[in-house]
Amino acid sequence: MTPDQYCQEKAARSGSSFYYAFLFLPAEQRRAITAVYAFCREVDDVVDECTDPSVARIKLAWWSKEIHKLFEGQAEHPVTRALQPHLAPFGLREAQFQAVIDGMEMDLDQTRYMDWPGLRKYCWHAAGVVGQLSAQIFTYQNGDTPAYAEKLGLALQMTNIIRDVGDDARRGRIYLPIDDLQKHNVKAADILNSRETDDFRALMAFQTARARGLYKEAMALLHEQDRRAQRPGLMMAAIYYTLLCEIEKDGWPVLTSRISLTPLRKLVIAWKIWVGGGKGFIRKIRALDVPAN
Q1: Which letter does DSSP use for residue 154 in this model?
Q2: 132, 34: one domain
């Protein structure tokens, strides 16, 4: 198995919405973004699959050293070997990959976040910087596009957090900010014990509005000259935004269920964005009446 094949299998096996956006890219960009995604999956799996935090720290330290070796031209792992030829063409930087690893280490250090600024910092490490890496691979001309991609990464991560409240709680984690819980009279025990109440649904409505605000801020930063190049990101945005709306429509049953879109629906959404260039989706999001974050 070649390094590219390893990354392709890792991406396909995950069933992620990101995979559907990759299908439409030219070969070099597809290989590059698939390698970046495979790296993110590798380090994320360290945290999710290691029951001993000390073992997880050792593995993340290994990945940190491996990324450093990658940028010295001495990559050993299939993922870093797949990344190697794409570093210079797309301007990928070591600090960006190390920031992702730092985000995974945050998961080992804390299971609660006091407020939105604290959670936002985590979201940047987990997804904002990944958005920037992705935008570089998709290519751009306008100087606002990296900020668009970073903001979109935050929106996607908030959507993940909303979807995974129950799954995370079963791992002992609550990403929803403590001060938001307090404002909505929701106790941590309610979430950990899967108690769906009107107060909990009001809390989730608030988080959904926050996510929508991030989508709106992102789309406001995407200029027309980069819209077509950034279509893969718009595909991910459209898929995740549709998922967010489905969760809301169902009344946020996220403590006991994990809502998802079918592969066919994801593919149809992605295809529509690719063919139409995302104009309709951008207009729809920019017209949302939500508060800024």
Answers
A1: H
A2: no
d(CA 263, CA 37): 18
CB atoms within 10 A of CB 49: 10
Which domain CATH number covers 114?
Answer: 1.10.600.10
Kindly state whether residues 89 and 142 are assigned to the same domain.
no
| Number of domains present in the structure of the chain | 2
Q: Rounded to an integer, what distance in angstroms lies between the CA atom of residue 65 and that of residue 59? A: 10
Terminus-to-terminus CA distance in the chain, angstroms? 45
Angle, nearest 10°, between helix axes 116-123 and 145-163? 110
pLDDT per position as a tens digit, 95-115: 999 999 999 999 998 889 999
CA dist 249 → 196, 201, 243, 246, 253 (Å): 15, 12, 10, 5, 10
Model pTM greater than 0.85?
Answer: yes
Backbone angles phi, psi at 152, to 5 degrees: -65, -40
The parent domain of residue 200 ranges over 110-292
Instruction: Using alpha carbons, list the distances in angstroms from residue 192 to 3, 253, 256.
Output: 40, 14, 11
